[in-house]
Design goal:
By secondary structure, the chain is mostly beta strands. Helix content is 0%, strand content 41%. It has strands spanning 13-16, 31-34, 45-50, 55-63, 69-73, 82-85, 89-99. The chain has a 7-stranded antiparallel sheet, with no helix packed on it. It is globular, with a radius of gyration of 14 Å.
């Protein structure tokens, strides 16, 4: 399946979001485009996979000494932040666009 995007990254990809951890900004069914060739910046929304197999869609913040740790924060306050060493990340990609279907 393809989705139109203005992203210039030739390795960009899109996923459809599941769950409620990022509600009230992002919702289950939203299609989000990610840039594989970009580094995330503080405050970016990211798609991350941890070495333990967890896959997360969260806000990204570098923390710890010299930014060696990463804090992944949900929009929905019922979910606690996840803080890990950068070495515990299998991958992390910043989001560039969100596409939302308004009518079924």
């Amino acid at each position: 399946e393809r989705t139109p995007t203005e992203c210039k990254d030739p390795y960009a990809f899109a996923i459809i979001i599941e769950g409620d951890s990022m509600e009230s900004k992002f919702f289950a069914g939203d299609c989000v485009v990610f840039a594989r060739n970009s580094e995330p910046r503080n405050g970016d929304v990211v798609f991350a996979k941890l070495n333990d197999g967890r896959v997360l869609f969260k806000y990204y913040y570098r923390c710890g000494p010299e930014g060696t740790r990463v804090k992944l924060v949900s929009e929905n306050p019922i979910y606690s932040p996840v803080e890990v060493d950068r070495s515990e990340l299998t991958f992390i990609f910043p989001a560039l666009e969100v596409k939302r279907r308004l009518r079924q």
